[in-house]
Amino acid sequence: MATRTVKIGLDNWEIASLQDGDTVKGTPTKIPGLVSAQMSLTINSGNFQADDGLWATLDGGISALSLTIGNADLKSEAKAILHGLTLEDGMEVYTADMTLPYVATVFRSRLNTGKYVWFGLAKGKFLPGGVDLNTRAETPTGQPDSVTGNFEPRADGVTHIIAREDNADFDLAAFRAKIFQAAGA
Questions:
Q1: Which residues are CB-neighbours of 64 under 8 A, at least 6 positions away?
Q2: Separation between Cα atoms, residue 7 and residue 160, nearest integer Å
Q3: What is the pTM of this model?
Q4: pLDDT in tens, 67-114
Q5: Cα(5)–Cα(14) distance, integer angstroms
C-alpha cells in the first residue's frame, strides 16, 4: 500500500531580486514568519466546435499566476526587497512613481512523512499590501500582513516549479538553481 501524504506545515520563505536577464541579483533573503501561502493559477482553454459537436479543446497556456503570502510581520528590510521602496531614518518611504522590482521566490510545505514539497515562482512583482488592524481584545489574536505577487514567464518560459522530496531524483540544489538563476550560470 502506498504511503498516504498530506501537507501539514509551511515555512522557509525566501525572495531574491532579479536583474536584467532574469538572473538573481545578490543572495536570496529569508523572510521569517510565514503564516499562509495561496497560489492561484489560470490556464486559458477553449472548446472548438465542428460537425455539430465538440471537436477539440484548445489550450492557451498559463495566463495568470499569483501568490498571496500571509506573514506574521513583514519587516521594513523585507519590504524594501519586495517593493523596491526606500528606507530613510527608520521609515518606509512610498512614492507615487515607485517601480516594483522583479523577484523570484521559494517556500516549502511539510508533509506528514517529514519530507517537504518545495514551491518556486520564477519572476514576479509583489504589490504593497494595505493594513487591516483591530484593537486588542481580552484574548489577543495575531494580525498578519498580506502581500500578493503577480508572476509571469521568465525569458526561458518557466513560470513556477514544484519539487517533491519524496520523488526519487529530488535535488534541492538543482531546484534552487533553476529558480534562483545566478548571473553567469
A1: 40, 41, 42, 150
A2: 19
A3: 0.88
A4: 999 999 999 999 999 999 999 999 999 999 999 999 999 999 999 999
A5: 25
